[in-house]
Amino acid sequence: MKFQPINRSQVVGALKAAGPMTVEELAEHLGWKSKKVSTTIGSTRWLLPEQVFRIVRYVQVFGRRSRDVAVYAAEPGADAPKRPINVAKRRKQTEARYRDKHRAIINARNRASYAAKRGEVVVNPWIQLAPPQLRAFMSTAGTQ
Q1: Above 60 in pLDDT, residue 142?
Q2: Domain that holds residue 21
Q3: Among residues 73, 104, 124, which one ends one of the domains?
Q4: Cα distance between the two ends of the chain
């Protein structure tokens, strides 16, 4: 009978039962911290290369500087090849997400800039974020 550490056997069991998963998905599935899952997989892959875990594919995850995250399976074999990264395409995707998330701020800045170019009185674009008691003071603060 072959001895297998408890952590490794639980990760192998979860991958065989639920199918290939990322480290974060495994951590959620097992109720562990992702660091523990990552260490278990990493040490096993170092001690027993291409025998227990292999990377079956990579998925793009947003919010991690556009890095690809490995999807692991509990099966022997070589890892799937990593796709080349199109840096320009990823940069465009990141900028589009930023514009969508900060649309109100960008629009307020643009309105203030266009009003200043036309010689109109520039109203503080951040006034709507202030408590009502301070709004009167903010609108007159720039005119003195």
Answers
A1: no
A2: 6-73
A3: 73
A4: 85
DSSP string, 61-129: -TTSTT-EEEEEESS-SPPPPPPPP-HHHHHHHHHHHHHHHTHHHHHHHHHHHHHHHTTPPPPPTTGGG
Q: Which residues pair with 69 in a beta bridge?
A: 59
CA 132 to CA 92: how far, in whole Å? 38
Tokens 């639920």 found at: 18
Number of structural domains (the chain) is 2
Q: How many residues does the chain have?
A: 144
What is the 8-class DSSP label of residue 21?
A: B
**Res 135 pLDDT > 70:** no
